[in-house]
């Protein structure tokens, strides 16, 4: 049995030094899942220096090329969800990040149902690594014995940068679900459906890329989760997050540059120069206070009107939910002021 991971002084240093977050994730992974192809200590040290990540990347690429006898190094994508490792990661890594750094709080816990399956729909912002969803999954997991799986864009599984930043199969092992119809359906049809919970962003990338000026305005909802909810009678639990807009503040999106780089968005802010010097900060975000407000559970199939077309029905339900959550956001902002 592998001993639990213990935070050392170096881990605390990595937590409070932004370029060190990538080190923290990889060190924890290699404690439980040793990987000779992963980053090593020399490369960790280079992460901490301006432009050192580029040297570390070149060193690792050369190591893998030599090991593969001259063939171009590749990273395997095959991995399965691992609830055991997910729990260890939550308790040993996410606990200090979510509670001490993001200071996340879950309000109206009494509205959480006792069992799943469940689709948790939340507004999405920040234009950075999805810490608003990661923190919500952590908080829900503390309240219920559920296997929480965030729905993620295929970029988190396929993009070359993330494949080299993070451990091989990291997103899959931690329960990430590709934002594709078949993956979405499979995630809610496991052996123990009562413990399966899917975190879903109805705004999709439109919410993440809407920019600082529209940070409190909900983008159009994608109704795909409502079609699944109605078909399989899976309840929807809306959650409103306040504070995620400060994860990467004063940010604009450059869609033309994002398309050139094969990315869904390209954030531009005063922090971009720092990211160029320290690319390992790609998994980091500004310190914020994340507040989550659980809303009453919804059963969309009970709101269906007779003889209504399927497409019209789902778009109507999506717009009605978006309108309700927008009202809650506006009310919470007035109360904060």
What do these coordinates show?
It is a single chain. The chain is α/β, with parallel strands linked by helices. It has two domains: 9-67, no CATH class; 83-336, Glycerol-3-phosphate (1)-acyltransferase (3-Layer(aba) Sandwich). The chain is built from 15 helices and nine strands. The strands form two sheets. It has a seven-stranded mixed beta sheet with strand order 1-9-6-2-5-3-4, with helices on both faces. Strands 7-8 form a two-stranded antiparallel ribbon.
Question: What's the topology here?
Answer:
Blueprint: H1 9-16, H2 21-32, H3 41-47, H4 52-67, H5 83-101, E1 105-107, E2 118-122, H6 131-143, E3 147-152, H7 155-158, H8 160-165, H9 170-173, E4 177-178, H10 181-187, E5 196-200, H11 204-208, H12 224-232, E6 236-242, E7 252-253, H13 255-260, E8 267-268, H14 272-277, E9 291-294, H15 310-336
Parallel strand pairs: 1-9, 2-5, 2-6, 3-4, 3-5
Antiparallel strand pairs: 6-9, 7-8
Helix pairs in contact: 1-2, 2-5, 3-4
Features of the shown structure:
15 helices, seven-stranded mixed sheet, alpha/beta, Glycerol-3-phosphate (1)-acyltransferase, 9 strands, 337 residues, two-stranded antiparallel sheet, 44% helix, 2 domains
Largest sheet, in brief, is: 7 strands, mixed
Number of H- or I-type helical stretches: 15
CATH-level-2 architecture of the largest domain: 3-Layer(aba) Sandwich
Q: Tell me the domain tally.
A: 2
Strand content: 5-15%
Large-scale geometry = globular
CATH topology of the largest domain: Glycerol-3-phosphate (1)-acyltransferase
Rg result? 20 Å
The percent of residues in helical segments reads: 40-55%
Q: Helix/strand-derived class?
A: alpha/beta
Distance between the termini: 51 Å
CATH class of the largest domain: Alpha Beta
Strand/helix succession: HHHHHEEHEHHHEHEHHEEHEHEH
Contiguous runs where pLDDT drops below 50 for at least 5 residues = none
Mean pLDDT: 86
Strand order of the largest sheet: 1-9-6-2-5-3-4
Count every beta strand, where a strand is a DSSP E run of 2 or more residues.
Answer: 9
